[in-house]
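Changelog note: in this version the structure field was regenerated for every chain. One regenerated record is shown below for reference.
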Amino acid sequence: MQERFSTVTSERLLGPLNDVERKFAPPRLFVSGPMEIPLPRPRVAIVGSRKASSRGLDAAKDIARALSKNGVVIVSGLAEGIDTAAHTSAIEEKGRTIAVLGTPLDRVYPKKNTRLQKEIMTNHLAVSQFPVGHPIQRADFVLRNRTMALISNASIIVEAGETSGSLHQGWEALRLGRPLFFWKPTVSESSLSWPKKMMRYGALELTDPEQVMDVLPSHKGIIKIAVQV
């Protein structure tokens, strides 16, 4: 994939960072796409299982569509399943989306998302913390989720199992003091222990996208959210 990439610092991309945000922020990020920098806001990550249920995929699409209609930039990780549904729905709604990659910008994973990544690089924005030539490693997708939590003003986990990479993003969002939501059926799933654990640290059940709008920063300023411990 022959594209023109730019290099920016995390603070150049996002604006000033506090000490908590700066602790794990990548020193440099590689970006491709026409979206303005510093990034517009509000930005919401919609993430979840690669092997999502049809109900979960529909929920991801509906949430992305509703938020896009309200001017929210949809952030996700370009993975199969929930991520792809969120990106695609935002694009179809004529909204904006940011793909945070676990690979260098010149690589695509999964390969089936080659066209989607090209579309995002051409008309939206793709971000990676890995330079061209960096070998793809499983651990990099965990780092990607941490960076995605930093980029997003709030995160929504639609569906995720006990070992899902999305859980790394959830915990990082809570560490940063950012709002974290779970789709209601996920909270009700008796086989999962992580929703209840994260809810003890301030995560919230999501029944309507309007709940997210209520806690997002406007373009004028950031609303501070207190995490209950």
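Spot check on this record: The chain has ten helices and nine strands. The longest helix spans residues 54-69.
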